[in-house]
Write a structure and sequence with these properties.
The protein is an alpha+beta fold. It has helices at about 5-20, 30-35, 50-55, 105-110, 135-140, 150-155, 155-170, 175-185, 195-205, 210-215, 220-225, 225-230, 245-255, 260-270, 275, 290-305, 310-320, 330-340, 345-355, 365-385, 395-400, 410-425, 430-440; strands at about 25, 45, 60-65, 70-75, 75-85, 85, 100, 120, 125-130, 140, 170-175, 280, 285.
């Protein structure tokens, strides 16, 4: 078969051949090309040793030279070029004790994780596919190269990667590979939080974020996100729900836009429910203050998984407000925007909508219509450029001091009270009117 390679990647391979070495594009770029997708990057594998690669190309960076990887710079683009290698024994579920370079491409392909990632290509030899990766792509199947247990013992993160690939591609994981995943899921405990985070985000932002259920069945979430397993076991005996907390969460993930913060918020929006469950005399489940509890738990989880502060702060704010009851009239929407924060207001509505879509049909249409109405009123408020925060007031602290309010905490208190008036009556946001109101507020 013919694969269209970028000119610069093909040129690197050509120059290596010209110098007497073999070289191929390898891995994900070949997989994606066969699937008709545009690869994000092109990795190259070669029989040339790192020092030989550096001698051939004038601009290189030693990105992983101990494992045979040199980054070749071509103009503004970078290509990782790695020497064929055989990995030695693994001792930490991630790193081999030693790496041996080889001239044999097949030996190099044998150490790769899944058959769909173990194909190589160049224009001279065509496709090299000794493990039937192309056939697995046709069948929609994730399968390890060689012995699945060996591959996962080499790097336990491959267990989560396999589930992530299945979620991204909509593939099934073949039985032997699943069995090995389940048996060795506990070894994920040795993997750093940063590496777990990367794969978890890729899974959540895939076309099938609900494949997290498969991760639970294989014992993976019990290691990397045990809070989710607790959610799966909590029934919701009330008219608004038909699923356990965990199944509701999986459904909600499929209804939210494909955005990292939104998917994370959806994953954790009800994480506080297991700790706040109560059942009344009629057998109805209640989860009072689960949003407050969930906010604290989500903060701890996201810290544990080493998420950046901006993502963490946005997610916990979305969780804090996801169960807030807005008043849907204009005054209520203005107050809601101020309370929640204009920067995340629409995202809160998105989370609320996905939450409702994953519930029972009880009052579902009424809830959705109300959220749509709130969204429409938000747009109307924005079009009118109505005041929604203290900084939008027609007066500021200097104006208040000139009117006789002493410098200090009283300035902030008066501004907040003026904002309350303006949120109630937007037309009052005029300097003269507000200064008149100051005499009613102060002293």
């Amino acid at each position: 078969m013919k694969i269209q390679m970028p000119e610069k990647a093909a040129d690197i391979i050509h120059q290596l051949y010209k110098e007497g070495y073999s070289a191929y594009a390898v891995g994900g770029c070949i997989r994606d090309s066969i699937l008709g997708k545009t690869p994000s990057d092109w990795d190259i594998t070669t029989s040339a040793l790192p020092e030989q690669v550096k001698r051939i190309f004038p601009r290189t960076v030693d990105t992983g030279i101990q494992h045979g990887t040199v980054t070749v710079l071509m103009g503004k683009e970078a290509f990782e070029v790695t020497t064929y290698r055989i990995d030695g024994e693994y001792e930490d579920s991630r790193h081999p004790k030693e790496v041996a370079f080889t001239n044999d491409l097949i030996e190099d392909l044998k150490r790769r994780d899944f058959t769909i990632n173990a194909m190589a290509y160049n224009e001279e030899q065509g496709l090299v596919d000794v493990f039937q990766g192309r056939e697995d792509l046709k069948l929609g199947r994730i399968r390890c190269v060689g012995d699945a247990k060996e591959r996962f013992r080499e790097d336990a993160l491959r267990i989560l990667r396999g589930i992530r690939f299945a979620a991204q591609l909509g593939f099934v994981i073949e039985t032997e590979t699943q069995e090995a995943m389940k048996e060795l899921a506990g070894t994920l405990g040795a993997i750093s939080a940063e590496r777990i985070q990367v794969e978890l985000v890729k899974l959540l932002t895939s076309e099938h974020p609900d494949f997290l259920e498969l991760a639970m069945k294989l014992g993976v979430t019990n290691i990397i996100l045990p809070e989710f397993d607790r959610m799966m076991g909590v029934e919701q005996h009330n008219p608004h729900h038909i699923y356990t907390v965990g199944m509701h969460t999986l459904k909600a993930l499929t209804f939210i836009e494909n955005d990292k913060a939104l998917r994370l918020a959806m994953l954790l929006h009800d994480v506080g429910k297991p700790d706040t469950e109560s059942i009344d005399e009629e057998g109805i489940s209640h989860f009072y203050k689960h949003a407050e509890r969930g906010e604290k738990m989500a903060d701890a989880i996201l810290r544990r998984l080493k998420f950046d502060n901006d993502t963490r702060q946005k997610v916990i704010r979305l969780i804090r407000w996801h169960d807030y009851r807005f008043q849907s009239d204009m005054k209520g929407v203005r107050r809601g925007i101020y309370k929640v924060g204009e920067d995340i207001f629409l995202d809160v509505l998105r989370v609320m909508r996905a939450d409702v879509l994953a519930q029972s049909t009880y009052l579902q249409q009424e809830k959705l219509q109300e959220l749509e109405q709130i969204g429409n009123r938000y747009q109307e408020i924005k079009e009118r450029e109505e005041c929604l925060s203290i900084r939008d007031l027609a007066v500021n602290g200097n104006d208040l001091m000139a009117a006789g309010v002493p410098k200090g905490k009283d300035i902030g208190r008066v501004l907040e009270q003026l904002l309350e008036l303006v949120l109630e009556e937007p037309d009052w946001n005029k300097k003269e009117l507000l200064l008149q109101k100051v005499t009613d507020i102060w002293p």
